[in-house]
Amino acid sequence: MKIWISMLTLLLGLTASGCFVDLDRPGHYHDDAILTVEWSIDGRTDPRECRASGADYAYVRVESGDGVVDEQEVPCEDFGTDFWLPPGRYWVVIVLLDRRHNDRTETVETDGRYLDDGDFIEVDFPVDSFL
After folding, report:
1. Helical residues (DSSP H) of the chain, grouped into ranges
2. How many degrees, rounded to 5, is the angle at CA 91 between CA 88 and CA 92?
3. What pTM does this model have?
4. Could you tell me which of 37, 39, 45, 117 has the fewest CB atoms within 10 Å of its CB?
5. Residues 75, 92: one domain?
6. How many Å apart are CA 9 and CA 87, to the nearest integer?
7. What are the tens digits of pLDDT across the range 73-98?
8. What is the Cβ-side half-sphere exposure of residue 37, based on CA atoms within 13 angstroms?
9. Torsion of CA 97, 76, 122, 105, to 10 degrees
10. Residues 6 or more apart from 19 whose CB is under 8 A from it?
11. What CATH number does the domain containing 54 carry?
12. Over 70: is that where the pLDDT of 16 sits?
């Protein structure tokens, strides 16, 4: 019973303070926007391109003027990932990695852009970007 009363008190306190919590997206707030980062290999998003080039993962890092905001390492063949971020100015650093997490490509850093309602960034790794 005390647990339920404590939880109710917490929820009432959060709503009274003007803080909104989206329980469907843990750690994210109602005003966050989605930044989608997509990549391709020589203009293609075929999983066979990842295998043929020895790229198993994509390391994607989102930065702002304050430094690293978020980072993810995802399978290469996903060819995209999402970040939930508050509005602000961001840029992306991305590199493809082999199965031992060594760089397979040159690192790409995108230009900064202001994220408000959502945006996407596309990066292509041409054949000559592979190490």
Report:
1. 2-16, 47-53
2. 135
3. 0.77
4. 117
5. yes
6. 30
7. 999 999 999 999 999 999 999 999 99
8. 29
9. 20
10. none
11. 2.60.40.10
12. no
Number of domains in the chain: 2
Write down the pLDDT at residue 96.
98
Please name the residue that has the structure tokens 């080039």: 53
d(CA 111, CA 106): 16
CA distance linking residue 20 with residue 64, whole number of Å: 24
Q: Position 104: which residue type?
A: R
Q: Which two tokens stand for residue 129?
A: 């970007």
Indicate whether 11 and 72 sit together in one domain: no
User: Could you give the CA distance from residue 78 to residue 46 in angstroms, rounded to a whole number?
Assistant: 10
pLDDT, tens only, 38-75: 999 999 999 999 999 999 999 999 999 999 999 999 99
- Please state, in angstroms and rounded to a whole number, the distance separating the CA atoms of residues 62 and 47: 24
Question: Cα(15)–Cα(31) distance, rounded to whole angstroms?
Answer: 15
pLDDT confidence of residue 22? 37
The one-letter amino acid code at 24 reads: D
As a whole number of angstroms, the distance between CA 53 and CA 42 comes to: 10
